[in-house]
Amino acid sequence: MKTPTNRIELGGQGMGEVSQKEIECRALELARSDGREAFNEKDILQAREEITGQFASTHAPEETTSTLELKEWDTPPGSSGFQHPKTQIREEGTIAEDLVNEGLDEADHNTRAQSGDPQE
User: Fold this and answer.
1) CA distance 119 to 35
2) What pLDDT, on the 0 to 100 scale, is given for residue 84?
3) How far apart are alpha carbons 50 and 44 in whole angstroms?
4) Gap between the Cα atoms of 47 and 20, Å rounded
5) Which end of the chain is more exposed for a tag (fewer CB within 10 A), N or C?
6) pLDDT at 32
7) Could you tell me the end-to-end alpha-carbon distance of the chain, in angstroms, rounded to an integer?
8) What is the pTM (predicted TM-score) of this model?
9) Is the pLDDT confidence value at 104 over 60?
10) Could you tell me if residue 84 is left (phi over 0), alpha (psi between -120 and 50 degrees) or otherwise beta?
11) Rounded distance, CA 32 to CA 36, Å?
12) Following DSSP, what letter does each residue of 37-93 receive, concatenated?
């Protein structure tokens, strides 16, 4: 089931409309994470997109630069790519370490956001 636009949902139950205060609070978090004391218009737009799920896009999400020029949807875009150099496969141990480090970074971010620490 799709969440209604401009509504906040917590645990599957609606919490109501998104207020400007909630958007500004998230924009302030974004500004502080960038080391600034005040938010700007870019922070407001990003916060609104994160909270409401509405992204300021001028075209459909399935459109890319190569598909915008197509006249028919079933015409494949020409290939102008190159062969990527082969890379070594990483060991599984490093993947697990990366996941643990990502979790620690996220926990650190949440702790800093709750304490109001601008170091993040």
Assistant:
1) 7
2) 82
3) 10
4) 10
5) N
6) 93
7) 35
8) 0.38
9) yes
10) beta
11) 5
12) SS--HHHHHHHHHHHH-----SS-TT--HHHHT-SSTTSPPPP---PPPP-PPPPHH
Six-digit token pair at 107? 């926990």
- CA-based R_g, the chain, Å: 21
Residue carrying structure tokens 């302030």: 28
Residue partners of 35: CB distance under 8 A and separation at least 6: 118
- Average pLDDT on 105-117 reads 86
Please enumerate in sequence order all residues whose Cβ is within 8 A of that of 71, keeping only pairs 6 or more positions apart, or say none: none
Q: Which two tokens stand for residue 115?
A: 């304490």
In this structure, what token pair is assigned to residue 81?
Answer: 């790519």
Residue 86's pLDDT is: 86
Separation between Cα atoms, residue 105 and residue 99, nearest integer Å:
10
Note the pLDDT tens digit of each residue in 6-30.
555 666 655 667 888 988 999 999 9
Q: Which residue has the higher pLDDT, 83 or 77?
A: 83
* Residues forming a β-bridge with 50: none
**Cβ 27 vs Cβ 47: under 8 Å:** yes
Average per-residue pLDDT for the chain: 75
